[in-house]
Amino acid sequence: MKGFNNARSLIVTGLLLLVTGASAALAQVPQRMPFVEPDFEIPEGPVGAAVELGEHLVKDTQLYAKGYVGNGLNCSNCHLGGGITPNAMPYVGLPGMFPIYRPRSGRVISLQERINGCFRRSLNGRPLPLDSPEMNAILAYMAWLSQGVPAGVEVEGRGTRKMPPPRHAPDPVRGRALFLDRCSHCHGEDGQGARNADGSYVFPPLWGDHSFNIGAGMARLNTAAAFVKHNMPFGQGESLPDQDAYDIASFFTTQPRPDLPGKEKDWPLGGKPVDARY
Ligand code: HEC
Ligand code: HEC
Fold first, then answer.
1. What separation in Å is there between the alpha carbon of 154 and the centre of ligand 1?
2. From atom 40 of ligand 1, which residue's Cα is the shortest distance away?
3. CATH fold of 2-36+43-155
């Protein structure tokens, strides 16, 4: 019953944070992350099967959601470890956070709709039917990862921790030189990643037809810079100075990539972030 004890201590910590939290910001619980694998078991039966399918879907989206993906990426290329890594947009705790109001949509959206946002943008594909086995499997996997996190409480490391604003205007020319030095041996000098003989990617592409589209969160300067700062070069997160992360992000986010039809409908009620690309 290891998982249960963890759950209990998390709830206690969560309540303490709720009581002592200084600001009106969402209460946070410390996340049991990074961890290699969740320490609770996958249940027997249909729910367990859905959890397993959900894990496959996020780690091998290319195969398991074939008809819905329009580029070369898997969810876990960005949601590292399949959604268990802090500051790499973890999935832990998300079922208890949604529905949320999203300025980009100008309305309250469900977790399913948020997942489909990444299908349309990050995977340059099309949305899963809301009641499909695939959608329910992704939800089951996220719920399984989120055991013990109280509903309505944000885990530490949700999203990707924002950095202070850059000291100097981000410089894509300097960013290109840094990219060639620090990133290109994996992602390729042309940013197209590296493939296995069967065409699958060993290292995912950062721009071009097989990468995320212009409407993706990763196409925004501040989001990309923070993701890179905390997670790249792969295995050496936190090693780049902030300005380098901004310069590199200002280079690769502005390289050619797929467009997003209908992007002009984003932020219908305002609230567009300063680093939006359109
Ligand atoms: C190219 C990188 C990338 C890929 C691939 C990607 N995402 Fe995301 N995802 C992001 C980023 C960046 C954010 C945060 C964006 C923001 O808040 O502006 C995000 C946010 C999310 C959120 C909301 C997280 C929160 O804390 O509210 C969910 C859910 C999500 N993604 C699910 C998925 C799923 C499922 C897939 C695969 C079908 C996927 N994503 C593929 C980059 C990606
Ligand atoms: C040692 C190889 C390696 C190096 C060096 C490296 N990356 Fe990555 N990068 C990866 C791998 C592998 C992934 C996918 C992780 C996964 O699927 O678990 C990734 C994912 C990414 C992603 C999200 C997926 C995508 O294609 O958009 C971005 C953005 C990224 N890297 C940017 C960078 C930048 C910028 C640098 C240089 C500062 C860099 N990386 C250096 C291996 C590397």
1. 16
2. 118
3. Cytochrome Bc1 Complex; Chain D, domain 2 (1.10.760)
